[in-house]
Amino acid sequence: MNNLIEKLTEAKEYIVSCAGTEHADIGIVLGSGLGELADQVENAVVIPYKSIPNFPVSTVPGHKSRLVIGTLEGRRVICMQGRFHFYEGYEMDQVVFPVQVMHLLGTDNLLLTNAAGCVNTSWNAGDLMIISDHIKLVAESPMRGPNCDELGERFFDMTRTYDKDLQQLALRCGQELGIRLRRGVYQYFTGPQFETPAEVRFARTCGADAVGMSTVPEAIAASQMHMRTLGISCLTNMAAGILDQPLCHKEVLEAGEKVKTGFTALVKKIVHEW
């Protein structure tokens, strides 16, 4: 696993050479349609993924494929404008590589965002959901293979993957802003196809409130490294079979556009009070 540390260190050192510092208070991963938040980072250093050694490159519409490092609400942040997905053809260890680099940059706090399908029939498209827990029935794990002891132990606890204090902070911030926040369970599917109506019924039976194709691998890697993690889902559409209409990625991006003002205000307030 020394090879992994070498690759992570090479990426870290390049980022430091561009940004001038290796310290960041909070790492932020911005999902589909949510990337414009990074445009509000002050004194920003923008680094295209393609220029960073060993970094993958986003291929999904709505992902700008670059790191933005600077100040947001008085905190030093490192934002991913676009993430990587298993369905793009990347291996799980590539999907979580940027989060591991953030950790080497001294980042102990992680905010994960995503666009997700709403499974809970008492909720609505356009709602924002604080992730309380997740379900991963996909066999592949980002920690599969020889363990990298420098990043964390081989067998690690997942009980507190999503920090409970940060969940309460987010709910309070939403209340103060007048933004209704849901709190629920996110179930991971690999995609890229949307879930079938039967899979959505299964997810609901399992206790899921939302379904999506990201976030969970990164949360697992963060948990191994003992990073404090908060997850927020933008419920861009009702999941398959709930409404009598087909699903499409354009709808996801359009829904993200509609909620971006409230979402941005919420994230900025959370970062300010983190």
Which of globular, elongated, flat, extended, rod-shaped describes the shape? globular
For the largest beta-sheet, the strand count, sense and barrel status come to:
5 strands, mixed, barrel
Structural class: alpha/beta
Strand order of the largest sheet: 5-8-7-6-9
| Elements, N to C (H/E) | HEEEEHHEEHEHEHEH
CA-atom Rg in angstroms: 17 Å
Helix content: 25-40%
Low-confidence spans: pLDDT under 50, at least 5 residues?
Answer: none
Distance between the termini: 33 Å
Number of strand elements: 9
- What is the typical, i.e. mean, pLDDT? 91
**Number of helical stretches of at least 4 residues:** 7
Strand content: 15-25%
Overview of the structural elements:
The chain is an alpha/beta fold and 274 residues long. The chain has 7 helices and 9 strands. It has helices at 2-19, 92-95, 97-104, 164-177, 197-206, 216-224, 249-273, and strands spanning 26-30, 42-48, 66-72, 75-81, 109-118, 128-136, 181-188, 210-212, 228-238. Strands 5-8-7-6-9 form a 5-stranded mixed barrel, surrounded by 4 helices. A hairpin with a 2-residue loop joins strand 3 (66-72) and strand 4 (75-81). The longest helix is centred in the last third of the chain and has 25 residues, at 249-273. The chain is globular. The mean pLDDT is 91.
